[in-house]
Amino acid sequence: MKMKYDDTMQWTEVSSTDQNPIFSRLTPLRGYPAALPESFLTGHQGRGFVHIEARYAAVLTFDFLFATCPDPIAESDSELELFGHAVGALIEQLLESGEYNAVHLLPPLAGQALIAPGSSSFFAGINRSDFSWHQYVRMYFIGNAADHRSDELVRQGFPFTEAEVELPDDRPVVIRAFCGTDLTASADEEDSRPRSSKTCGASVDLEEVASESWSRDLVEAMGGIHRYRRQGLGVFLYDGDELICGASSFCRYPNAIEVEVDTRPDRRNAGLARWAGAALSVLAAAHDMYLCWDAAHPSSARIAMDLGLGFSGHYICTVYRFADPSRRSAEGVDH
Which of 11, 147, 235, 315 registers the highest number of CB atoms within 10 A of its CB? Predict the structure, then answer.
């Protein structure tokens, strides 16, 4: 039987400046759950939602959703099921908007504990007949350039505006850096030390990056090119004039970036992603920022480990879509 959510399940979108009390009750966490609310509350990125009864809060970045019920009684089975009903209503609301074809639900926070994917009460509250869903494991790494003890880019003494490296097949690849105007301004205000942010970015065509399906998320995930121009940080690899790989800020926090890495399909498995990740880590360190590397695939996790980033933990992400493909928007995000 199809479940119908009633008016008590409605959510209201709020801005980061609203300072809704429910967000102030979020338990400080290390690692992946803390990143999304931190990015939203500091005004960097994301959308915030509060349940109509002000019992639950949620933050959405790109199509990743983190939900919380800070009330200590939320850990009982009956409360978990109600919480699940409410989160299911928000997922439906987001999917019906046509902006998203999928919602990736991170393990929610109930009271003082994260809800494990095996929690039948919470997930039974979410699930409904017109949702399809699957789960997969993501691994989380944190670190900065100081951890790269053997990387050639660090030995060469970057930060940089543009540099050329030679791959094992003797083909030269140009690495170009981009720093948003907000980073440029803050670097100028802090001190007069030479920083790549003062000149980098002129050689990176963001519209070109956004025009290719494989590279679009490198600049669009932060909320569009306009936001990336202000807050983005990235490195882009070129073979001649052709963009072939990039590592970029998927999400911004006050002193860190979440990393997005991708390589043009015909140039994968050649070590380009590792070079891009190493260069981005050094560039981020020049701005006193560290990397948060959220790996969805073993190959991505191997790059993070090669770069010396510290393993912070793993978690299971649950992806929800409408089961009927005709209800999915051609324009919706489907990460």
Answer: 235
